[in-house]
Automatic annotation (TrEMBL):
Oxidoreductase found in the keyword field: yes
InterPro entries listed in its UniProt record: Bact_Lucif_Oxidored, Luciferase-like_dom, Luciferase-like_sf
Domain annotation Luciferase-like: ranges: 5-308
Protein name: LLM class flavin-dependent oxidoreductase
Gene3D superfamilies for the chain: Luciferase-like domain (3.20.20.30)
Keyword annotations from UniProtKB, A to Z: Monooxygenase, Oxidoreductase
GO molecular function list: monooxygenase activity; oxidoreductase activity, acting on paired donors, with incorporation or reduction of molecular oxygen
Pfam families for this protein: Bac_luciferase (PF00296)
GO cellular component, one term: cytosol
Keyword Oxidoreductase: yes
Organism encoding this protein: Ureibacillus endophyticus
SUPFAM superfamilies (alphabetical): Bacterial luciferase-like (SSF51679)
Length: 346
């Protein structure tokens, strides 16, 4: 097998179920996330990711804490943030939290760092959005050093200097680090220069438009002296699976439309997605993973031809989707999609 990994991730959004109007509590959302992780682990999926937000309509502000709870309930599955908002996190605190998670989980921790889709963490932690890019770059440089050295001497612009600082605890081995990339060439090049994995958030449209980013990432990585083998690409995307593609579209549309309605409202515009728009977004040649297991397999394999990626993470719990539907998606992903992908890539 080519070592292709398949998993799921959650951003822990809390929204009303559009069919019943019921909204789960933050406590229920967290309980469901832990249950989903257990199901994913038992089903043999490879990775479980948890995102970070600092808003009342999301249940997780500390991925490391939630992943530590999951670590004690699971055995094999890798545990990653998806993403850690590195611009406004202290890299030392982030690294020590995930090193602790690594020890608790027997070496399963990973960090996927990103700049985040929202900016509420900037005022919350005393940072300026004017420093958006520079903060991320500086914090990433420090994070890489923390991962490589037990004792760190470092100085930068936005954080107090470190002199022979002991960074404790140490993970079992160096933590795998990834950068989440939404669509800008600069982000792809940065991930390549740092020599860390690149996780592409592909939420729809034609996947071909992401190919240049993958090429830029690999080129920048090789030019910076990193081995091609170390330059890993992952794809993350919204996913809904049912026995047939029509069933998947019919069941998912109310939830997907609902999801974009409240996400867009959070950003200041609240247009609703029409059924026609959704049909277009879910068509066979697009990147939205909605359909029968065969349709999902086809899309993942098509993207693998384009990107040569080694990891696919599905977001299966958005828009107020009830837990039993999330559980069905995990089961279909593990029993119908994974075997076909592994067979095709063998």
């Amino acid at each position: 097998m080519s070592g292709f990994e398949i998993g799921i991730y959650t951003l822990a959004d809390i929204g009303p179920d559009p069919l019943t109007g019921h909204t789960v509590s933050a406590k229920q959302r967290l309980d469901d996330i832990i249950k989903a992780a257990k199901l994913a682990d038992e089903a043999g999926l490879d990775v479980f990711g948890v995102g970070e937000h600092h808003r009342l309509d999301y249940a997780v502000s500390s991925p490391a804490v939630v992943l530590a709870a999951i670590a004690r309930e699971t055995n094999q599955i890798k545990l990653t943030s998806a993403t850690s908002v590195l611009s406004t996190l202290d890299p030392v605190r982030l690294f020590e939290d995930f090193a602790t998670l690594d020890l608790l989980s027997n070496g399963r921790a990973e960090i996927l760092a990103g700049r985040g889709a929202f900016i509420e963490s900037f005022p919350l932690f005393g940072y300026s959005t004017n420093d958006y890019d520079e903060l991320f770059t500086e914090h990433m440089e420090l994070l890489l050093q923390l991962n490589q050295q037990d004792t760190v001497t470092w100085s930068g612009k936005y954080r107090s200097s470190l002199k022979d600082a002991e960074i404790s605890p140490r993970p079992l081995e160096q933590l795998p680090l990834w950068i989440g990339v939404g669509g800008t060439p600069e982000s792809a090049i940065r991930a390549g220069k740092f020599g860390v994995g690149m996780a592409l958030a592909i939420l729809g449209g034609d996947p071909n438009r992401f190919k240049p980013l993958v090429d830029l990432y690999r080129q920048a990585g090789i030019e910076a002296g990193h081995s091609p083998q170390s330059l890993k690409v992952g794809v993350t995307g919204h996913t809904y699976i049912a026995e047939t593609t029509q069933q998947a579209k019919d069941e998912f549309y109310p939830y997907y439309s609902n999801y974009w309605h409240y996400v867009n409202r959070q950003r200041g515009f609240g247009t609703r997605m029409s059924k026609v728009d959704f049909e277009q977004m879910a068509s066979p040649e697009t990147a939205l993973f909605v359909g029968s297991p065969e349709q999902i397999v086809e899309k993942v394999l098509h993207q693998h031809e384009l990107f040569g990626h080694t990891r696919f993470l599905a977001q299966v719990d958005i828009g107020g989707l009830p837990f039993e539907k999330v559980a069905q998606n995990i089961e279909l992903l593990a029993t119908k999609v994974v075997p076909q992908i592994h067979k095709a890539l063998r």
